[in-house]
Each structure stands twice: as structure tokens, then as C-alpha cells.
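Q: C-alpha cells for this one, please.
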Amino acid sequence: MIRMGGKRLKEEVRLKIVKEALAGIKVGVLARLHDIHPETIRLWVKEYRDSIPTEEIPMTDEYLQELQRLQNVEQRYEKAVKVLGEKELEIEILRELLKKKNPAYPKNSK
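A: Here is the predicted structure, written as C-alpha cells:
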């Protein structure tokens, strides 16, 4: 997160975000990535797009690769949190069973 305590972002940061938008990264993605309202980014693009030389606009491939990497990390994190939650639930169930004097074991059907 770049923004802190509602303070205005420095112009260098604004220009970086505008360049990313001009490189083809969707405004919604940039908004989530930088914790900024999408309409704010659109206003910055309108304000700065004519002042940014074409050679300063980054290659989209680099950013797409980075965004894909971040998405993969987020997916692995979500999966790990889910597995961890399931394991904690199993541990809690086992602890409750250990507290019982006569846990309900399945009876042998012979």
C-alpha cells in the first residue's frame, strides 16, 4: 500500500501509476494494487498522459509477468490459509475428544 493516512501521493508515484495505466494495465487492477480509487487514477491519466514521452511508458510484458506472479502468490496464500484452518479445526475436534471420558468409538460389528 502506497498511501498512508490519507496523505496525497508524491508526483513521482502518480507518474509511475499513470505510466502503468498507459502501458495497458487495467485501472481496476492498479487501484487495488495501490489502494487508490479507480476514478482518481483515471483523473491522473487525463492530467499527465500528454506530458509523458512514449519511451518512458514501460513494456506491458514486464508488468503482466509481475501481476501474474503476485496472483499466483495470492492463490497459494489463500490455499495455505484454508488448509491451516482445516487443520486447526481437526486439532480442536481431537482435543474435545480427548477431554471426554468415554468418547463414542464405533462398535465392532462381529
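A few notes: Helices lie at 11-22, 27-34, 38-48, 60-99. Residues 29 and 38 are 9 Å apart (CA to CA).
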